[in-house]
Amino acid sequence: MPKLTIDGREIEVEAGTTIIQAAELLGIEIPRFCYHERLAIAGNCRMCLVEVEKMPKPVASCAMPINEGMVVKTNTPTVKNARQGVMEFLLLNHPLDCPICDQGGECDLQDQAMAYGKDHSRCDEQKRAVDKKNFGPLIETAMTRCIQCTRCVRFANEIAGAPELGALGRGEHMEITTYLNQALDSELSGNLIDLCPVGALTNKPASFTYRSWELKSTESVDAMDALGSAIRIDTRGNQVIRILPRVNDDVNEEWLSDRSRFACDGLSLQRLDKPYVRRDGKLAATTWSDALSVLAAKVKSSMTGRMAFIAGDHSDAETLVAAKDLAAAMGTTHLDCRQDGAALEAGLRASYLFNSTIAGIEHADALLIVGSNPRIEAAVFNARVRKRWLTGKLKVAVIGPKVDLTYKYEWLGDNPSILADIAAGTHPFAATLKAAANPALILGQGAVARTDGSAVLGLARKVADTTGMVKDGWNGFNVLHTAASRVGALDLGFVPGTGGKNVAEIVAAAGKGELDVLFLLGADEIDISGLGSTFVVYIGSHGDFGAHRADVVLPGAAYTEKNATFVNTEGRVQRTRLATFPPGEAKEDWKVVAAVAEALGKALPYTTLSQVRERLSAVNPVFAQIDMVAPASWGTFGQDGSVLPQPLTSTIKTFYAVDPISRSSKTMAQCQAAFGEDQCQRKTGTHG
Amino acid sequence: MSMHEQPTSFAFTPEYLAKANIIIARYPQGRQQSAVMPLLDLAQRQEGWVSTAAIETIAAMLDMAPIRVQEVATFYTMYNHQPMGKHHVQVCTNICCQLTGSDGIVDSLKFALGVEFGDTSKDGLFTLSEVECLGACANAPMMQIDDDYYEDLTPESARAIIDAFRQGQTPKPGPQNGRINSAPEGGPTTLTTLSFSSEKA
Ligand code: SF4
Ligand code: FES
Ligand code: FES
Q1: Domain span at B127
Q2: Residue of B nearest to A174 (CA)
Q3: Quick check: helix, strand or coil at residue A384?
Q4: Are residues B137 and B168 part of one domain?
Q5: Hey, are the CB atoms on A179 and B70 less than 8 Å from each other?
Q6: Could you read off the pLDDT of A288-320 as tens digits, one per residue?
Q7: Which residues of A touch B71 (CB under 8 A)?
Q8: Residues A431-455: pLDDT tens digits?
Q9: Phi-psi region of A297 (alpha: psi -120 to 50; beta: other; left: phi over 0)
Q10: Which residues of B touch A167 (CB under 8 A)?
Q11: How would residue A682 be classed by pLDDT, with cut points 50, 70 and 90?
Q12: At B24, which CATH number?
């Protein structure tokens, strides 16, 4: 490995490292605008100039690979001078409108101008002005502020796989724009806002509503999909102003999907902030004690076993364990967390986890996607697949919807029987999988949420077994979840017990009047209209489908309003943190369940959060291991049986409306208006 | 980018398509994008300018995102982004040409064509553009019409060239004052013993 000296300190780095990276390893900071460690090197802003011995001029450290014996200086008067020169040029056409710019206070240009800017301008020429561009409903533009670093162009091209941004014209006339000024159609577009080092691209829904220094940040975990991306919730008072990604290389790198980022206005809309009881056919606001006594009266008049629980997609583990304990105390085994009817079984963890891990997909060299559209089911993860595909080392095939995934793949069809052919080795893709060092498959919820889901699951397992997907140090069998609550619920065994009914059976029984009381834990995606005259208790945060049908509504907290545990699709146990308080009289959901239990005379044996968490670990020890993924042991699961010819599809059609929060969000509604209700209809593009 | 009325479709004529395919075939498999500039040029030769529809057609032919093609097309000033007259008159006003009288050439052209820079004459025959140095400074002042340079202009000779084009002729390109290429005006001042072949004739 070559050695070099930076500011008199010697360091040995891998060949091919650039000077800026080597300096970073030494903790020496070099200013930059265009350089970003996750994007291709552009070398066009020149802010990172350093001096290198024996080189006649200062060099751009981000674009200069190191050489043996290089002597680099980052703090000489020449360097300072050179950077001041660059800064002066950057500011020539910059409007300096920081007081009215949303980026103010968190702007790279502002910060670096403090270090390298002159206190006055030597330029009396007119500055150029550039028209606003249309980047869609999520990104506000002020292109006069743009310094043409092209980070946004590279992100759209490389990471998002939506090559719709470009730099048109040249020199002073260069402008960044979308193709024909059309809205940028990507689920990851919000990341442009973070990447833009100036205030050219800013958060449109939050435009002019905050100054960055007024906000309080809380580090938390996202629950808008099943990835569990690391987020930072920025609040002012009790309002979530914006949500930003944090770096977590294992999960989201530093990206965040647009739903996770921009649905946050839905956190303060359609909220349940008081308990409600249905009286004379109408929901009327009431007090906790009244709601609970109405509920208790109803339950007491009902027979044992005629009660059921359905968990929604946002239920945290604390709530689930409390509800499960309550169900047991009430003597019912009718409980289920699989709103979509997915035929996944609790018990064998490997059968429902994303076993290769999210980051692990970067080691896969052949990938079979079954019944999933990862682009809208897990947008950030899809970017990871694309990243691997861009290296040229990953072959992808799809059985399921034929949609633009931002990478090229072989479409094998959408009939689940193809899986059987692959398992039997008669399909050509079987050979590709077998020849791969690390073959993998992704099983979407669309593959298992069918009447023959169990057989599809069994076939997928066979494919994994027969193509060598499961071996020492590698398990390529991956279930891609869409609900943040699902893995945690399966880990807790929130599925029908002996003689218990699953979601479809619960709904059918309710319709036939065989159920007296149904508890919906934020469950809004079931067939609400089929519940007959069953007494429905809705515990959740939003006045969505479930609450409208309910007889008693008990207001709960959204994921930003509680310290709660979620398990992501890989089986990673993570915790959200309270950023704002639940509105009005709403309470953390597990406490609501505990209050219900108490009202029913079955008080749960825990009263504090740490006690619930002890209970979690007692039910399943994985809950004791925060932010870790342990390999799960393999086994046999799924059923033998024939599969139906119905095409495999994705369970999600509209990226922008999948849960009560995104359905309540005005921003998400605008996105639907701009991009349509069906993101699966996107043409399979030629780009890539 | 100012947008002009855009045609809804574009297709290469069979003749141009054949040329395009020859160019594309020059590049190795997977590197067809390299053909983007010559293809844009072909489209412009066919239509006089590069429309959005042409950009999209070329993008599809080369498996590129349309914006990538548009970036190239807008980077180079030689691609036109609006409908053009039959002949494109590009007059240089950069330093050498200006010192040798391009102002007069410009006035004469504007008067002859009845247009300002960027406009097309009423008869649809000429579009007049102002350009920077075209690298023919030794023969300044000069202008380019279509693919040819007309050099050593005077307001009168510039006018005469336009008139000839108007009548459907193609005047002889090159110096308009009898000079041979860039040889010194009025004959050699050094190396006087050397003779030029064409001088003998
Ligand atoms: S808009 Fe922002 S990210 Fe894009 S080129 Fe301009 S300054 Fe860079
Ligand atoms: S950071 Fe090196 S040139 Fe922009
Ligand atoms: S200045 Fe006119 S050709 Fe060079």
Answers
A1: 87-175
A2: B75
A3: helix
A4: yes
A5: yes
A6: 999 999 999 999 998 878 999 999 999 999 999
A7: 166-168
A8: 999 999 999 999 999 999 999 999 9
A9: alpha
A10: 71
A11: low
A12: 1.10.10.1590
